[in-house]
Please model this.
Amino acid sequence: MLLRHLAEGMREALAAGDVEAARIAHETIGRLLGAPAADAGGVVDLAAERSRRGASPKTPSRRPLMPREMQRGCSPASLAR
Model:
């Protein structure tokens, strides 16, 4: 009965566009059914995992998050002209 009520509430919330209420109902249904929470995962030691896989313990160099043109203040729209 409780699960049915939560499912109906979730459908009504989605129909009304209330995504937050639907998310809460969905999470509650999952907890009631005994599904593990998304944040209940184990902690991984990255250095140990990299050495186990034979990778270098150094972190690879990262590229910029934005293209150079955007870093200098140019927008993609101005580049298309």
Observations:
- The mean pLDDT is 76.
- The chain is about 55% helix and 0% strand.
